[in-house]
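TEACHING EXERCISE
Course module: macromolecular assemblies
Task: Read the component lines below, then compare them to the predicted structure of the full complex.
Student: A.B.
Group: 4
Components provided:
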Amino acid sequence: MEWSEEIIAQLKDLWAEGLSTAEIGRRLSITKNAVVGKAHRLGLPPRPSPIRRNGSKPKAAADKAEQPTLIPPTPEAPVSRATAPAPSVAPATQPVAATTAPTPVAAPSPAPATATEAGTVDDKTARKEKAAPITRASAKPKTLLRSISDPEPQKRRGPSCCWPIGDPGTPGFHFCGATPIPGKPYCEEHAQIAYVRLRDRRDSVA
DNA sequence: CCCTGATTCGC
DNA sequence: GCGAATCAGG
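Instructor-supplied answer key:
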């Protein structure tokens, strides 16, 4: 796997957007493991994980007998207690990023009755499609990104596919812009990637 | 069972 | 450095 700067940039972006590792993996046509692994190596901020590994290591780690690592008795007791401190600390402008809604299912398509295509396919499979959690236009207040001609495409003209092309923050970045499928934020091409069947998403992309 | 992310470890 | 295998919680 060649982690080009661009790929890495996309990974970072998607990661920052709160997409699941699997989601990111699908989009980059790689496995979630690759995503997670790379993310860690890149030192990307970990996201809420349900698990905490530590109890046991059936693997070779088993012999990793924990050394009685003398841990200094945390000599620090600076806490003036109470939450009073933090005097001139940041004005609490901490945006906390979009960590809130990883999978908001922002699908603007309210009616699952998209018989158009769903009807034919297996009911379950069809409805199994999950809306890409990508927030419409990964337009993060990246300052420099602002310079893009129009931050709100679908505002003035017809809707356009907002699939990100390139790395947000770099000159070449842009959104797909193609005509989206009615009721969806992406064009047909990207909708296929964005909306994945839960059943056989394993090898979707390709 | 499905999902999820984290860590380990052979490559 | 990479990522499959594995682990582990929801």
